[in-house]
Design goal:
- The chain is α+β, with helices and mostly antiparallel strands.
- The chain contains 3 helices and 2 strands; from the N terminus they run αααββ.
- It has a two-stranded antiparallel sheet.
Length: 89
């Protein structure tokens, strides 16, 4: 679960960093690094498309995140994510 969250947070932040006025090539670099892992590369591409199409209006970065077991003991869990402030214009 932690690995999946790490990938999702990295994609979220990379797309946002590329959209900054100073720009960047964070998404391109992420794609390059994932070439050796086809299954992960497919997941990254899906997450990029979803970030751009469904969440483009959200300008906050993912900070820390954690997975906490459900207190009821039913096998569930809670995902906690720190949303860091919007980037400067």
């Amino acid at each position: 679960m932690q690995n999946a969250l790490s990938i999702a947070a990295t994609v979220w932040n990379a797309v946002l960093m590329d959209a900054q006025p100073e720009g960047g090539s964070f998404v391109a670099e992420l794609r390059q690094r994932m070439r050796a892992l086809p299954a992960v590369q497919t997941l990254v591409e899906i997450l990029i498309r979803r970030r751009e199409s469904l969440f483009a209006q959200h300008k906050w970065f993912v900070g820390s995140y954690d997975v906490v077991p459900d207190q009821a003991g039913l096998g569930g869990f809670t995902v906690r994510v720190e949303a860091r402030g919007e980037p400067m214009p």
